[in-house]
Every structure is written in C-alpha cells, then in structure tokens.
C-alpha cells in the first residue's frame, strides 16, 4: 500500500505543477464563471485532461495508445505540437509540423541512451512552420527507457522544459502501472497453471483407475464416468479467459464429485444448495474446485466413517456468498495461517493459498477466504464474490465438441 501511495504522489504532484504553470499561462478570469481562482480552475482542468489521457496509457506504449493520449498530453502542456516515440519510431504526432518526424528521431539517440532530457533547435525551411524548438523528455520504466515525449514550440522556454519533464514522469508512472497489470496477469496465469499441474497427476490416475475397474463389471457405468472425466478435464485445461461463471464452475465441480463418489462409494455424501440468481456471477477460473478438492481430501483421508460435504451459494445483495463445509479432520488454525501466509508448504497441494491470493488480487484484500477450522472439527470455507467488478467478465461457455 505504501508503494501505491508513493506512486500516486509521483503521479499527481507533477500534474499539479503543470496545472499551476498552465493556469498562469492561460487563465482568463472572464471565462471562469465563478469556478474559483484562475489557478484553481486551470488545475482542475489539468487534472481532468490527465484523467482522460491515463486509460490508454495503462495499456502500455503502442501506436494506438499513443494516438489516443497525444492530444490530451499536448493540451496539458499547451504546446503547438507533441509526439510520443518508442525506441525506433514516432508512434503518434499531434499538432503542427509533422514533417519534423525524421529530424526528431535522428536527434533522440542521446536522450534514449542516457535517459536524460534535452532541448534543441529545429531546422525548417518551410515559411509557414512556426516550430523552432523541441524539448525531449524520456519515458522510463524501472530505469529502462521505453521512448520519449517530445514537445515542440516556436521559441525556447525553460518553463516548457520543466513542464515536459513532469508530464513525462506522469506518463512513465502510467506505463509502470501498465507493466504491473501485465505482471499481475502473468502471475494469475502462472497460478492457474500451477493448479492444473496439481490436478493432473494424482486425480487423473485415480479417476482412470476407477473407470478401469468398471469396464468389465459395469460397462455403462464406465462410459458415464469416462464422459464425466472428459468434461471435467476439458474445463480444467481450457485456454481462454481468466474468469468463468459460477454456473460453469459448479458444473465442473459436479463432474469432479461424480468421479470421487465412484471411487469412495457411500463413504461420501454431498449436499448442494444453490440460489439460481447467483449462477451468472463471474469469478476467477478454477476458484471453487480446489476448495471442494480440499474438502474431499480432509473429509476422507484418515477417516473410516462417512464424510459429508456441503456446498451452498446464496444471494447476498451485491455479492454471492459461497460456503464449502466438511466434517473431516480439520487443521490446526496456526498451521493454516502459516500456509496462507506462504510461510510453510501445504501438504498435498497449493489450492487454499492459491485461491486466497487470486481472490485478493482480483477483488481486494477484504475478499480473501474466511476459513473456520480446528483439529478434528472439520473445515468451513467462505468466499464472497462481488456480482459486479470492473474487469471481471466471463469469457463465456466452452464450445461443445
């Protein structure tokens, strides 16, 4: 959180400085209509313009994102022209004098190599071109120069040099946030792959062994279980979308439990209570199945009597409340805390810590798993899923084959 606040300060303070300069440069009291002092009005206008420029930059530095943000950035600086470049080319040009593209790229060698800004005189033989100076401010992420912001003006200005540098720092913060978003996506993908690796060897071997045991004694039963196995593995190893629906996740859990019941027979009973209105809720892919697998593991291992697993999904206003409870062996609460904190390796897999981490990453820390357990007292896991969350959208059902 401290890193986030520091990033926020880095992002906002340069904008306030640029807004102050822009206000001193452009404020006209007769146009304010009671919206505060000229400086305050200009500052608010600057922040609003920056808020419009930020979303494209959060997708990284590309030709498309540069085109979408260049005009807003030029408005922030109040210059006649502005361009954004990567290491090799001008990605977007907004304003006058686009014929200076080649000249500017030829002069960017030193700023792109050293990461230091500079200003230089433009050469131009066109009588209608008013651009005479260019200010270069490198765009850096983690001390690596990704490109440059270049502001062009009719005359040399120390104020423009400082303002361009501050706006370039703000753009760099947005690019760094984009890089963090991409890293977060890669982390989630890696965690899903880890879950798949956990599911694969042990579960697949046991499921195929159970199916094989029915091939001669009950061929129809073996066929049904083989279809259950195919549907479950097809869902678990699908390759599109980070999110799914509660309906699809529960459907996969049903296939999983059919295979488990075939193995353990009447030693395992399962109760499901699902409110229909929460079935369309989107949630991270493979989010509930590991919790059910955990309940099976701790509900059956080390026990000779019957085990029971209860799965409920209730409508709780703006959230869906999912509870998975078993009457198994339970766990020492202190060991559970250390597992979730990553201090010790969980026995038999990474399901609980993986799901807890992903829920916190997607929804926030307040949406981590709530787990109630004690040795010999079973386990109750509660997951709260917001019905509506920006960026959380199911990729839709898998196409049937």
Question: Could you explain the architecture of this structure?
Answer:
The protein has 401 residues and is α+β, with helices and mostly antiparallel strands. 50% of the residues lie in helices and 19% in strands. It is built from eleven helices and twelve strands. It has helices at 2-26, 38-57, 63-77, 101-107, 109-114, 158-214, 219-236, 246-264, 289-300, 333-340, 351-363, and strands spanning 81-85, 90-95, 118-121, 133-141, 144-153, 243-245, 268-274, 282-284, 307-316, 319-326, 370-373, 379-386. The strands form three sheets. A five-stranded antiparallel sheet has the order 2-1-5-4-3, sandwiched between helices. Strand 9 (307-316) and strand 10 form a beta hairpin. The longest helix has 57 residues, at 158-214. The protein is elongated. The protein starts with a helix and ends in a 15-residue tail after the last strand. Residues 1-32 have low confidence and may be disordered.
Question: Which helices and strands occur, and which strands form pairs?
Answer:
Blueprint: H1 2-26, H2 38-57, H3 63-77, E1 81-85, E2 90-95, H4 101-107, H5 109-114, E3 118-121, E4 133-141, E5 144-153, H6 158-214, H7 219-236, E6 243-245, H8 246-264, E7 268-274, E8 282-284, H9 289-300, E9 307-316, E10 319-326, H10 333-340, H11 351-363, E11 370-373, E12 379-386
Parallel strand pairs: 7-9
Antiparallel strand pairs: 1-2, 1-5, 3-4, 4-5, 6-8, 9-10, 10-12, 11-12
Helix pairs in contact: 1-2, 1-6, 2-3, 6-7, 6-8, 6-11, 7-8
């Amino acid at each position: 959180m401290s890193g986030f606040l520091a990033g926020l300060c880095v992002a906002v303070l340069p904008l306030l400085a640029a807004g102050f300069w822009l206000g001193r440069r452009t404020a006209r009291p007769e146009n304010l209509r009671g919206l505060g002092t000229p400086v305050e009005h200009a500052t608010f206008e600057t922040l609003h313009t920056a808020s419009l420029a930020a979303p494209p930059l959060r997708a990284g530095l590309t030709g498309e994102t540069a085109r979408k943000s260049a005009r807003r950035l030029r408005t922030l600086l109040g210059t006649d022209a502005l361009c954004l470049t990567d290491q090799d080319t001008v990605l977007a040009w907004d304003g006058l004098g686009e014929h200076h593209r080649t000249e500017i790229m030829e002069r960017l060698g030193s700023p792109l190599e050293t990461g230091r800004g500079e200003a230089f005189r433009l050469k131009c033989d066109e009588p209608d071109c008013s651009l005479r100076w260019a200010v270069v401010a490198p765009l850096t992420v983690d001390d690596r120069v990704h490109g440059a912001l270049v502001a062009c003006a009719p005359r040399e200005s120390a104020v423009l040099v400082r303002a361009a540098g501050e706006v370039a720092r703000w753009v760099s913060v947005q690019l760094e946030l984009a890089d963090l978003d991409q890293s977060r996506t890669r982390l989630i993908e890696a965690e899903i792959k880890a879950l798949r690796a956990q599911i694969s060897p042990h579960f697949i071997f046991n499921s195929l062994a159970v199916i094989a045991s029915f091939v001669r004694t009950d061929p129809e039963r073996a066929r049904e279980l083989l279809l259950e196995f195919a549907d479950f593995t097809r869902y678990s190893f699908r390759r599109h979308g980070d999110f799914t629906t509660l309906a699809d996740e529960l459907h996969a859990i049903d296939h999983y439990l059919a295979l488990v019941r075939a193995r353990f027979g009447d030693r395992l009973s399962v109760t499901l209570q699902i409110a229909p209105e929460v079935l369309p809720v989107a949630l991270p892919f493979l989010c509930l199945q590991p919790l059910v697998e955990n309940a099976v593991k701790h509900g059956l291992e080390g026990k000779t009597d019957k085990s029971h697993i209860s799965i409920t999904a209730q409508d709780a206003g703006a959230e869906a409340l999912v509870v998975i409870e078993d009457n198994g062996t339970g766990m020492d609460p202190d060991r559970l805390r250390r597992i979730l904190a990553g201090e010790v390796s969980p026995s038999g897999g990474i399901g609980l810590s993986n799901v807890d981490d992903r829920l916190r990453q997607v929804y926030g820390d307040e949406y981590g798993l709530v787990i109630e357990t004690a040795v010999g007292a079973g386990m109750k896991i509660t997951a709260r899923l917001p019905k509506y969350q920006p960026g959380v959208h199911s990729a839709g059902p898998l196409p049937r084959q």
